[in-house]
Every structure is written in structure tokens, then in C-alpha cells.
Amino acid sequence: MKKILVASTNKEVASTVQNATDKYSENFDAIFCPDTDEALSLIDYELPEIKVLDYTSKDMDANRILAAIHADPWLHNGGIIAVVPNPSIMQEIEDKKDPNILIVLTLYTFKENFERLLRILQGNQKFLFNRGIQDRMGGQEKGTFICDNDPLDIRLYTSFLVNYLYCSNRIDDDGRYALQTTLMELLTNALEHGNCNISWEEKTGFLKNGGNMLELIEKKRNLPENKDKKIKISYFIGKDKSHFAIEDEGPGFDWKSRMVSGDVPDFELEHGRGISLSRGLVSALHYNEKGNAVSFEINNVRDMANSVPGIMVPFATIQYKRHEIVCKQDEPSNDLYFIVSGRYGVYADGKLVSVLTPDDMFIGEMAFLLNDRRSATILSAGDGKLIRIPKVSFLNLIRKNPHYGIFLSKLLAQRVVRQNNRTVELSEEIKDLKNRLEGRV
Predict the structure, then answer these.
(1) Which end of the chain is more exposed for a tag (fewer CB within 10 A), N or C?
(2) How many angstroms separate the CA atoms of 7 and 52, rounded?
(3) How far is Cα 215 from Cα 205, in angstroms, rounded to an integer?
(4) Which of 53, 40, 4, 44 has its CA nearest to residue 24?
(5) What's this model's pTM, rounded to 2 decimal places?
(6) 196-200 LR contacts (CB < 8 Å, sep 24+)
(7) How far apart are CA 215 and CA 211, in angstroms?
(8) How many other C-beta atoms lie within 10 A of the C-beta of residue 202?
(9) Strand partners, 317
């Protein structure tokens, strides 16, 4: 069940969300909050996957809520739907290019599109999660999105991919900017110049006359010859690289003239910088012969956390070399370690039982919580960094920031669930193997 926090005093916003969540009650639970302080508290304690911030409510301080999310990006990430009173504020918020914002909508477009938006979110729930509290899907993942001819769709799917790779430690801040910028540039090209068949000259003339591109797109995408066209987004997330492909149903274009050596974006132009800008941010950017399909790659970050929990920033970072011991089995220490980078072997009675990476987040949480001796020896497999957190200091911080204690509890509960599921799988495998062996006798 995904939680939707609605920070609003606007009855139109509340009723729109209520009507939509009633239709998807098995997947979404709305929490309505008409007070800014209460909303901030709920964001800390409930960790809602989706936050509706209403800029039309004069009694709500949406900017303050957004700032609180920015203050600790490790704990609070993604999932913001901003509702604004007019297009000028919409443009102002979009110009910030905040990666936490899924979509910015005027009140009218919010009422018209929220149910469809929720339907898209329902079909892509794996992309909506809090850091560390999600099922692991292995080292390689692939999939496909099919977008309508709608700017809302391409913004949503871009946010899905960027937020997912960031929160699963596949990309850092620079990678997040590069991926978000490239996807939006290339998807916008696929929508405008591909499926809507808006020429460079037509767009230039429209903008010079003071036109709004969203109005031109709305007109073009609803033409009989364009209204049923789709944009296909394919992704393959590997261990070292991630590959993305975009294909529209338009006539294509002469991409070779744009892919000349040394091509750099002309920032004096009102538009037309997308391809050259993208080439500088990603690798292996390539069009098909027709010019209606493009692909590119980004390098993944490995064995490194892209951000650190806000309350852990004051503690010292310790660097480890290959085969350096972090702690020994049976020693009485109970400090907690946050994994910033590296890989760490877990040895019980001299046998390797597990390898921990930044995806595991912590080392030593059981001794930390149970005030017990170390149950295993931890050995660095290579160069790495850990943040050492003395128990007394951390408990004092938890008293001041109790929501972190709740998050840690949820994180440990999720680990128990994963371990239980794995135990069941192994039991079934052993049972199946036993039956096969007995059948041969």
C-alpha cells in the first residue's frame, strides 16, 4: 500500500484525490493534512511515497515543506506532485529542475488528470519507494514504457527512472542531472518533432510570436493523424552501465547533420540544443537510419552511497584498505557503521557468510540494538569508507529525531521479511531436490 500525503486546504484538491484513491483503494491510501507543521511531521514519520503539495492553498507553506525534503535527501526522496494556481508559477517551479518533483500541474489540469496519473503510478509501483525499503530485483533489470502523446507522461516516466536509479545507488548527483536532462530533451524531441511533426521553423516562429509550446503541442497531438501515436521507452539497467532507447512514430529527421564532430550547444538559441546538450552528458548516443529512434548509455556507480543520512553527517568517516578489519567476532563493541563505499566480507567462525555493500546501508545493527558482542568479523574487501556512529551519540540524536528510529525499525523489519522469504525459497528448493533424489532410488 502506497501512501499519498495531501498537504492542502483546497476542497477541490482534496475531493479530486479522494475520488481517485477510492477507485484504487487497494494500492493507495490518502492522508489529508490541512496544516503545514502536521504535514512536516507526517512526512518524517509516515514516509509517504507520494506528496501532493498544494501551492493554491494560502494557509499551506508548500515551499517550507519542499525545503524540508531538500534538507535530508537521503531520507525523503521523490514523489512530489505540485499543484499551482497559474502557468507562471508552474514555469517557475519547473525551471528549478527539482528531481524530487514528479509533475507540476495547474489546478485545472490536476483535476482533469490526477486519476489518469494515479493509474500510471499504480502500474509502476516498483519505482515508488523509500530508500532501503524496497524489494531487490537483482543486478540487471529491463522493461518498457509506452507513453501517450502527452508531456505529463514523459515527465512521469523520466521521474520514475531517475528517482529509481538514484535511490538504488546506481547514479550520483551528477548522474541524476545527466539522466534527467537527457531523457527530457530526447523525449521532448520525440513528442514535438516526431509524433506531433512540429518543424524547427514552425517552433521558432511560434515562440517568437510569444506562443506557449504546451498550447502548440496540445493542438498538434490531438490532430486525427497524431492522436493515437505512442512513444516507446526501453531501459536495461546492468551492473556497470544502464542503456536507454526512445522510439517515436514520426517521420524521422536528418540526424547526421546534427551529429557533426565538435558539435556544441548554442545557448543563445531559444531551442534546438537538445541533441548537442545530451551528447555532452551521456555516452554512445546513436540514432537509427530513419531518425525516429535514439539510444544512449550512462555509467553506473558501484559500491558507493550517493548521499548520507542527515543525522550522520557530524560523525567521522573512516577509510579502510583491502583486508583491513572493521570489527572482530565476540568483541564487546556496539558501534553502528553506515556504509559510504566499498564491499565488506562477513565471517562467522572463519567462514564467509555474506558480503555487505552500500545497498545494505549498515554494519553492526544487531550488536547496536541488542547491546551484545559482535556476532561476526567484518573485513574490508577493498578500499572503502564507513561512518562510525557511537551508540550513545546516536541514541541522543534519535531522541531529537525520533523519525529516524522509526525508519531504522522499518529497515530492519524489511530485512527480516527478505530473510524469511529467502528461507522459504531455500526450503522449497531442498524439498524439491529431495523428492527428485528419492524418485531416482
Answers:
(1) C
(2) 6
(3) 14
(4) 4
(5) 0.72
(6) 196/149, 196/220, 196/221, 196/226, 196/250, 197/226, 197/250, 197/251, 200/271, 200/272
(7) 8
(8) 15
(9) 387
